[in-house]
Amino acid sequence: MFSFHHVTLSVRDLSVAEGFYKGLGFEPVYRWQDAEGRLQICHLRLGQALLELYCFRPEEEAELSAIPPWANGFRLGLRHFALQVDDLDRALSALHGAGMLTDKPSPVQGQTCSRYVFILDPDGNSVELLEGPLVEIQRPE
Known about the structure:
The chain has 2 helices and 8 strands. It has helices at 14-23, 88-97; strands at 7-10, 27-33, 39-46, 49-56, 80-85, 108-109, 115-120, 126-131.
């Protein structure tokens, strides 16, 4: 009945955010902008995963209160999303070498994977990079 479609992140600068996610291997597949240029949307694909970037550009900060609740990016919501990599050290070195990371974070041992680390996109959204093999998670009774 249901199938996963996408995750949406609100960002300050669409081109900066798009560049960051392209550096992680995402490819742009769709763009839209309203007539006033106050809302821009970009869809990026990585394998079967779809990431939607929303960029609101109100004329004044006070106008943020006029944005409908479903569109407000400044509320509780997504904690992070994860990307699986074959070699975490190689992935971190590549991101650092490309200037996407100022410092290389130290991976830690995982409970559901071999090792993982969190990085931040330009807007402070958290992205987990995890290295397999993934552990079979105990299923609820």
